Structures are given as structure tokens and as C-alpha cells.
Amino acid sequence: MIVSPSSRRLKIFGGIAVVGLIAIYAHARPQWNQAPFEYARDYYQSVTNYFGSPVYNNTLYTKGNEEMVDRYYNSSSPCANFPSTDGVLLVMKTGATEAFDRIPTHLLTTLSCLPDFLIFSDMEQQIGPYHVYDALAEFEESAKAHNADFDLYRDQKECPVSQKSCVDAKKDGQKAWNLDKYKFLPMMEQTWRTRPGRDWYIFAEADTYVFWANVIHWLKKESRLNPREKLYLGSRSFIGGTPFAHGGSGYIISGTLLKHLVEYHPGVVKQYNVKGANECCGDLMLAQALDEYENVKIRQAWPMVNGEKPSTLPYGPGHWCEPILTMHHMNAEEISLVWQFEQTRKTDRVLLIKDLYDGLIKPKMQVSRQNWDNLSEDVCYLNPDLQAQQRADGHFRDRQKKEDEMNEVEKVAWKSWENCAKVCESQDVPDDEWDTQGIFKRENEGPGSASDTETSGDTSPSDAAARETRKKLMNEKKRNRSCFQYRWHEEVCCTAKSFKLGAPKSEPKHSDLKAKWVSGWHLKGINEWIDAMGECTNPAWKTPD
Length: 545
Fold this sequence. Notes:
By secondary structure, this protein is of the alpha+beta class.
């Protein structure tokens, strides 16, 4: 049978169509089985892969600190550049009412790189896999029984829910402060008993930040201190004429001193446990015990061991080329931020106070801020009216400049924040008129001008030396500036001999302009001082005295 050409074509096209349908079915069937939940799974995996990446945008990176920090934050090896802490032990003190607010951030940051450390509190607790020891566990029951300072200690043990819930309900933070002073000396005894033989013991509060790279470098290389000597180092404070290392700033005790105190004087803890009822502070009692039993006094390590934080540090003279070892009053967010700064710095050189300003504070500086306190209080100008003087805080009255020593700008500085701002402006160093009139003018004259002979004479070696001398004088005036910022509130104008960021203040509830808090920074003077100081070629390490 002969098949017509048209029939053959239909059969061929039909076969192709069938094959095509089979291929489409084979390809589409897996997609049908997968939808819609498989698609959701793929999307979820893509999201978790993103969040699981160890590289993120560095949230510190901003205009003004691009040369200081990397644009991205690689968190894959946080301890890669952490120094060896062999022979050094951190002992951190906290309280049961604050432990869960403060300690976890330390565990996620600096403590994650320490091979060993101790945490003491006024109650035994557990934070994940980390144990918190009760510094008062061995305190004599007879000494606690009739001591109201231990009311909180007893209440904590009876609290059936979280400590925070019980504390928030009573709203009595003073009890935690009263109890805190009893931890210091028992903590010394327990530290030596559980971790003897270290070269150095660093004691810190839960709101203290330790710059470990600087601390280890200083202790092992720069300080020239011998841990076999009896040494007690910190930021010196005074109460009643007695010097002591401020506990919040952190302090360092050599292993030899700790051993002598604990092993050679077993009664010291019991004695000071009783004495504590009549003393204000545990860091003071520790200093008293070291002086009484070991004849050792604090050796000053300030400003490296510091009681401030980045936003309150008094940047300027004495707080610039000095390395930083510790800071105080750091909340959880600030601890994380400074750790991030250390992790993303573009250099591993010694971290100076200047670096904290350049990396964290400078990008936030501006001419003025409303409802802000930048902590200016070195020199104050008050309304001379008798009633206004009586209303003013005695702290500010004591810092008033004498009227016969004021210039015309200072005499009216109290009247408004605008007047207050002019105090720092009045210290500006004028432009070098000799240089601008003599050099810049000539540079703008064309070749062959009538002043060629004069120019030739004024660019002699002696003329260049005069210009250099003039420049040095100008820089010296800029370095000696004593007014960098101001704060105005309730007709009180105060200025500062350093520059700080400060903190916000609540907006006044009424419209009285005098009630406003206005803070300002003389950025021109600040930047001129920084330029005149030049680079910190060598860290200004402090020799303890």
C-alpha cells in the first residue's frame, strides 16, 4: 500500500510531539513533587547561609574613621591576634542582681579568648557553662547575723524567681552596694587557694573593659616590673587621706603579694569582715589591709588604668598618646562596641587613647547638641546676681572664674548658650599675618613683577628660619589651648580643658529657655590642637609611682 506524502508527514510530526510531551513530563514531575514546600526550604537555606557567614558589614565603619577600621567585620577567628596570657589571671567581680545583665557580653567577647578566669559574686550562680562563685560563702555566720548589710544576701537566697525580678520589685540598689564591699578580701583568699602561682592577678568589675593586648605588652615588656616583688597597681583614689586602687578601674596585684597576704596573714580576712560594717568601700579596705600587713601602697598607673569610658574620657593634654589598659562604667553595648573596634582595627600597634577618639568619637562630634551634657565643668561663669548664685550648684560656684580675671566675653558668658560658645572662640590663634601677607601674596604675583627683588631677599635662609620660628610659636599656642568645649544650663556656662562626647539629658518639660541643656564643641580649636600635637611617634607608657 502506497502512503501519500501528506500522511507520512503527519506521522512524523505526531511522533515528534509525543517525544516532546514525554520529555516535558520527565522534566516537570520533580518540580511538581517539590512545590510549594521545597521552594520554601531552599529560601530558608539561603537566608541561614547568609546569617551563618563570618563576614559582616562593620557597623563602626563610617565617614571619619575609614582609615582606622576595616569596612567588613570577619568574626571567624576572634582570638587569632589575642596575646598569650600565660602567668596572668583575670578575676571578675559582679553581683547576683546584675550578673545576667553584664557577664554574658564579656563571655562573648574578651573572656572567650582567655584560657582561664574566675568570676565572683555574692551568690553562687551558673551562666551557661560558666560557674559564678560566692565570695561570701565562708563568711562567718556570727558576723552576718546582725548586720543589715547582709539583708540582700539573705533575700537573694529566698527569691523563688529570677534575681532581677526580685530586685526590680524592691527597687533598692543601695543594698547591693552595701554588700559589695565585703567581697574584696574573701575574694583574695579564694583566688589564691583555687588559682595559686600566677605572676599577675588582674581584678576587674563586671563593667570594666580590659585591653588585653596592651595589658600583656605592658606587664611583660614595657613596665619592667618584677612579679616576684610585692606590687599593687591601679588608678589611685583617696578617701580620708588613704590612697587605694579604684576597684571599678581595675587593679593588678603581683602573685608574690597575693601569696604573702593570704598565706602569711590568715586572720586578715576575718578581721576586715568585721571592720567592713564601719567602712564605705571594699577597695579601700583592701588597700588598708595591704598597707597594714604587707606595708605595700598602691603604685599609680593612671591614666592607662582608667575610670572613664570612650564617651567620657577627657581627650586632650594627658589623655592622648598614652596607651589604654582598662575602662570603667561600660554597659553591655559599649563592651561589645569596643571589642568590635579592637577586632576591626587596621593595625595591631599599641592602642592609644587617641585611637579611641579617632575611631569611636571623632565621627560623632558636631558643633552643638540640644538636651546634651558633654561634662564641661573645669571653669564656670555664673549670673553674678546674689539669688542666682545661691540657686547654683556649689560644685559650679567653686569653679567660677574671679570677675577681675575675666575678659569681656567671659563676663557675659552666662547669659545664653551663644555667649557661652564664644569663650572658647576667644582663645583662637589668629592666622599668621606675616606669612599670609608676605608669602601667599607673592605667590599670586606673576613673573617679572616689581617685587622680584623683595621676594628674593625675603626667601633667604634667615627668612626661612624666621618663618619656622613663627610656626613653632603658633603651634605652641595651639597646644596650650585651655578651652575646647562648653555646656550651658540654668544660666551657668562651664567650659572644659579637654574634649568629651558626654551623654543625653532629658528634654525640659516646660518651655523655659534657661532649663535647656546645650553642649557645644569648638571643633576648630580641637582640630588645631590635634594638628599641633602631630603624630604620637612613641606610646607614652606610664611608669608606676
